[in-house]
Amino acid sequence: MDLLDTLTAKGLRGEIPTREEALAVLATTDDELLDVVAAAGRVRRQWFGRRVKLNYLVNLKSGLCPEDCSYCSQRLGSKAEILKYTWLKPDQAAEAAKAGVAGGAKRVCLVASGRGPTDRDVERVADTISAIKDADPAVEICACLGLLSDNQAERLKAAGADAYNHNLNTSEGTYGDITTTHTYADRVDTVQKAHGAGLSACSGLIAGMGESDGDLVDVVYALRELGSDSVPVNFLIPFEGTPLAKEWNLTPQRCLRILAMVRFVCPDVEVRIAGGREVHLRSLQPLGLHIANSIFLGDYLTSEGQAGQADLDMIKDAGFDVEGAGEATLPRHRADVAAAAEGSACGTSGGCGPCGGHAAPAVEETVAAAVTEAEEDAAGANADGGLRSDLVRVRRRGAGTELAPNA
């Protein structure tokens, strides 16, 4: 199909499609799904080979947030029966992080609920970063603490943080529909603060909140313009007790089209399948690996993911490799930007075109072999009209509990 040929050619050159082309990806049919995945897979392999970066979440402070984000189980007024606890001590957080690193995670994401950190909170996180890096100096640390005030990004950078996550979540035009206690501009400002301090900007979106195709395209183009190095694509987990509890709008096929659109708009950027992967992609998760080059390992902040070993088995069975600590995630032309701030250069590992990417087998055969059974399973899962609240499991293990994590 001409659209996919055009998108593939642009992606292999690192060019961005037009807004109309991005919208057309979301409008493709289920009959065209394998072609869409195959085209996005070629672009993914050009820049990232067959590597999958593993990330691990540690929820430093859970629940009790004063913000009213409609999608969040930790929001003000949430009746979701999630874990609620105040700050983990640095040694507790380091112990929690150890499980993810042992499972192959290259990056540890330190997250805390709340509007934004106080200066004392930044000190706590700095101590936690030190504790984690004392145990493993090579691990990447991404902080996610909410809206940043002046000089806080610089302090996190000085403490050893490598990246800062703050998602835009949805388009500017509809942002006020999901949150009223802060603005879209507040979020953009925090991403810019992080980038300005020399932190890698990690910023993504949430799909499935009732947004239009135009909203999805708008937020992805905004993320590209902001220079986000990593784009987490979350699929709404409709927690009971939140305003969006009834928003079951996604199918596995829809999720794959969204991931493909993000890949075409961000061909040379780390695209991560984030929250909601197990709930919405279900048995089509392996196909997502042909588009995205990064996932979270194990559980999420307040919900349970599939077992870490199942993630590792899925990666291996799909013909991919876990990205090692010594391998550069981003292709050279993007890594050089970070190198100017970090004093480091792009790694010598394979996987990105300009860095000497290695050849990879075509995705079409792999996809075709896997999709029939997966589509039948997905269709059966939606036999009740798409409502799969039985798939949403509140996290009861890992950080903040006495139970071992599932990494």
Describe this protein's structure.
There is one protein chain. The chain is α/β, with parallel strands linked by helices. It is built from 15 helices and 10 strands. It has helices spanning 2-13, 19-26, 33-48, 90-102, 119-135, 152-159, 175-178, 184-196, 213-226, 252-265, 277-281, 285-289, 308-317, 332-342, 363-381; strands spanning 51-61, 107-112, 140-144, 163-165, 200-202, 205-207, 230-235, 270-273, 294-296, 321-322. Strands 1, 2, 3, 4, 5, 6, 7, 8, 9 and 10 form a 10-stranded parallel sheet that branches. Strand 3, helix 6 and strand 4 form a beta-alpha-beta unit. It is globular. Mean pLDDT is 87; it is low at 343-385.
List the helices and strands and how they pair.
Layout: H1 2-13, H2 19-26, H3 33-48, E1 51-61, H4 90-102, E2 107-112, H5 119-135, E3 140-144, H6 152-159, E4 163-165, H7 175-178, H8 184-196, E5 200-202, E6 205-207, H9 213-226, E7 230-235, H10 252-265, E8 270-273, H11 277-281, H12 285-289, E9 294-296, H13 308-317, E10 321-322, H14 332-342, H15 363-381
Parallel strand pairs: 1-2, 1-9, 1-10, 2-3, 3-4, 4-5, 6-7, 7-8, 8-9
